[in-house]
């Protein structure tokens, strides 16, 4: 098993994560990832802290001293067309070359043009396709491999669709990566729009926003609020979400997928370390929502007994995903989930 761990972005957090990894002997942890520089581009996720090239280089060197790879995430779902301007081309070419010179091991992108650009620059960095690219079929995986992908993080919506996962492993030669603890609603109707929002909000200082003379001053995160309210009214949506229990990683290894990624770089270091230890050790006792990202706030409202979920993967592996006929997750919700009394 190979495990990629989120990093909030500041040097103190990186040290804590690596110290915890070494103290617990978590040899499965081989890589950390952090957001790219906001002066250049935004990100598809919320970002607490990000570094310029100098800071990324310092942290990469420290990670390498401890046998850990560094991946920089440059995965906005929307660039407003700026990347297709001559100025945008020059900026991204310069930035990727700077990351490469800083010793960064890999870069994660969602935009197809940037994948091809990275390939044509012939750098040493691994080209990783973000889950934000929504690779959910063998056809789409083949497309991104042909563009130049070394690794593809598949769309979380197919995490429990083993028929498609196995088809993708047969269709491509590049590495596949599965996100283990994302808690987004299955087939969420807000997913594309929410990624676009983050892409622009986190780019508030970027060359893109300056070029378009824009400022971002939103009054609320509509998608987050709706996401929470839907699951408060219908907790079965929590169980339908495509997260993976630490104990069930072996099911993915059995079909040839051994590369796993923990999401949640906007969470606290303690939360990240708890997830890292649980997935490395393939075991967790307690409220599974303590490991689930997006949104972790649900862990304060509901308690999902992880041990009571044992064996559920057998149903999900063969599920046709027609919820109004199946009702398995509704029944399971009544068994494993309870409201936390304040």
Termini gap: 39 Å
Largest sheet: 8 strands, parallel, barrel
Under CATH, the topology is which? TIM Barrel
Number of helices: 15
Task: List segments where confidence is low: pLDDT < 50 over at least 5 consecutive residues.
Answer: none
Percent range for β-strand residues: 5-15%
Give an overview in words:
This protein is α/β, with parallel strands linked by helices. It has a single domain, classed as TIM Barrel. 42% of the residues lie in helices and 13% in strands. An eight-stranded parallel beta barrel has the order 1-2-3-4-5-6-7-8, surrounded by five helices. Strands 9-10 form a two-stranded antiparallel sheet. Strand 1, helix 1 and strand 2 form a beta-alpha-beta unit. Helix 5 runs parallel beside helix 6. The relative contact order is 0.14.
Task: Using brief descriptors, characterize the structure shown.
8-stranded parallel barrel; alpha/beta; TIM Barrel; single chain; 10 strands; two-stranded antiparallel ribbon; globular
Overview in brief:
This protein is an alpha/beta fold and 342 residues long.
Write the layout of secondary structure elements.
Blueprint: E1 2-6, H1 11-24, E2 29-35, H2 53-65, E3 69-74, H3 86-101, E4 106-109, H4 112-121, E5 126-129, H5 138-147, E6 151-153, H6 162-171, E7 175-179, H7 191-201, H8 207-211, H9 222-233, H10 236-240, H11 249-253, E8 259-261, H12 269-281, E9 302-304, H13 312-317, H14 323-326, H15 328-336, E10 337-339
Parallel strand pairs: 1-2, 1-8, 2-3, 3-4, 4-5, 5-6, 6-7, 7-8
Antiparallel strand pairs: 9-10
